[in-house]
Amino acid sequence: MHRGLAAAAAAAADSSRSRSRRSRRRRRRTTGPVPPLWRMCGLGCYRPGPVWLWKALLVFVAVAFVGQLMGLIFNKSSIQPQANTLFAAPESQGFPLGSCRPRSHIMFLKTHKTAGSTVLNVLNRFGEEHGLRFALPVGYQLGYPLLFNAHRVKGYQGPRIVEFHIMGNHMRFHKPEVEKVMPEDTFYFSILREPAALGESAFSYYKGVAPAFRRAKSLGDFADNPRKYYDPRLRNNHYARNLLWFDFGMDHNANFSVSLARNGVAMIRKTFKLMLLTEYFDESMVLLRHALCWPLDSVVTFSLNARQQKPPGSGAAASNSWMDKAAAAAVAAAAGVGVRGGRPLVRVPPDLSLTPVQRDKLREWNALDWYLYLAFNQSFWEDVRRFGHERMDQELALLRARRDKLAKVCLRNGGKAVEPQRIKDKTLRPFQSGVLKILGYELQPGLDNITTEACLRMIRPEIQYKNILDVLDAKQFPRPQAISGPPKMMVSAGEGHVG
Question: What is the pLDDT of residues 129-138, one digit of tens each?
């Protein structure tokens, strides 16, 4: 009996020890081995955790440190954008614009001989920097001198099917067709120039393609008796009379009357919310900046397509002007202008001198343009008055100071335009035509990558910029196949020009 009790007690003890061992094993599987430090310190002591976690943390810290170090090295070599570049400085923003929102749907009617190429550069830069889509021409211009047709826009697929942001290449304005391309909230603006000055520029640059100019011995000769040389039926003579009126899509050969001119101005006002003036270009840029709600640097410009007033060796120093280049030499040559027997003709610079009486005669000959200019000159200064003269003076000072600073950073030769043969980078040489050379700019060497690209955008000639935008358009907005349009239209010999 005693043996039975002893055996039962031993069995119970073994069972208890077995349960205790199983319980300890479960705890070890759940919590892992308990370090001596835990038992010594109690609940107030920190538990370091598994070793592998510490190793991973050390690896992460090492990788982060190396990455930061490499970033500093790359920044110093200008491969990555720098946080504090010239074009990212606070002064690049200009005075505060308030609560307005930047406009991105813009139509600029690029009129001829009015500094339009410089204005277009403003749009090209902003659009490229912000990835906007341009309504680019299938060729070089949007069908000029024919009235604009929507099918002249590359990638056009029907009324407002594709969203275009910016339209600014040369065209003869035709609102119904433009509205097929541009969104409903598009901001329309253009630029005008005093007709006598515009006529002087047009005579110089279109003398080879406009029969009325070609037949006249000098600009004064033409001004004295324009009807002697002008035939409205001849191709390209639109350059010789009321060129602004023609660019706005109206009949430039119509007999002048106040009612006709007033109706034309009213029609333009309905569409175009801002009219810039070539003679007051800086004031125009200030008004444009506030109308578009863009930062200051977006409207800081260098004069593009500036011409020498006289060719080298004439005794007159080269000077800048808002004049831009004439009809493309290749187009003119194809029309038989400027060549004879396969050899270039020796071209003599046209006589552009005018007496005050002859200037008045040119304004009278271009009476529709003169009325247009006077009307919008008045409204321009009303816009300035509403903006505030003191405020305008402050904005002008800031704009000009910023331009001077960027010119010193970006440009060689003290920021002055130079003759094309002095420009080593051939991609920055403006297209040349005629005797009077078109000036360009040389980029300052040694700039970092970010600054170089920003400066290049400011001085890139129009044709080269258009080619770049063609490439960007193809990359950003690929099209599976070309959309067929109406039959190919005749293009005048003047379509190849930049102005």
Answer: 999 999 999 8
